Amino acid sequence: MDAYGNIQLQEKKNLDTMNSLSANAALGSLIANAMGRKRSLKAIFDFNTNGGLIGTYQLLDQYGVQILIPANAIISKVMLDFEIPLTSLGGTAAISLQVESAQDVLASALVNTLANRVDGIQTGNAAQTVKTSVDRFLKAVITGEAVTAGRFSVYLDYLF
């Protein structure tokens, strides 16, 4: 597999001919066809892990690994789930999410207005998609003042 988890031609052939069952099912072809379609990821921002100072944070998956969205991926849907609402001392902390450019996934919003589940900018409408020009990281940007507590997950779908 390549760096994005895509199956290579020789791997496909090996899986197709591995044994009689895989040959009958064309296992390699099935796997190759399933790849290169819609992919979903989950990223996490946790005050206890990331901190909350003003700045930009690369979001990580549940295993603590940076999330890389490949070049030419089309982000089609984003939803945030606030497990623990974000807070700040003066109520002026804001957060946005970005991949390709500033605020292209979630427009800047005061953290005290974000609770439960919130849609990102991408809701499945083609006009709202973002296409990556190069490999990109999903980032959270905190502005205004520091965040003092909270945790949220980002669920992001993209086509590749």
Descriptive account of the structure:
By secondary structure, the protein is of the alpha+beta class. The chain has two domains: 1-36, no CATH class; 38-159, Jelly Rolls (Sandwich), CATH 2.60.120. It is built from four helices and eleven strands, in the order αααβαββββββββββ. The protein has helices at 9-16, 20-25, 27-34, 47-50; strands at 38-46, 55-58, 68-69, 74-87, 94-98, 106-110, 116-123, 130-131, 136-137, 139-143, 149-159. The strands form three sheets. Strands 1, 4, 7, 8 and 11 form a five-stranded antiparallel β-sheet that branches. A four-stranded antiparallel β-sheet has the order 2-10-5-6, with no helix packed on it. β5 and β6 form a beta hairpin. α1 (9-16) packs across α3. The longest helix is centred in the N-terminal third of the chain and has 8 residues, at 9-16.
Quick recap:
16% of the residues lie in helices and 42% in strands. The protein has 160 residues and is α+β, with helices and mostly antiparallel strands.
**The first-level CATH class name of the largest domain:** Mainly Beta
Number of strands: 11
What is the count of distinct domains?
2
Output the structural class. alpha+beta
Count up the helices.
4
Characterize the largest beta sheet: strand count, sense, and whether it forms a barrel.
Answer: 5 strands, antiparallel
Spatial gap, N to C terminus: 15 Å
Taking Cα atoms only, what radius of gyration do you get, to the nearest Å? 19 Å
- According to CATH, the fold-level topology of the largest domain is Jelly Rolls
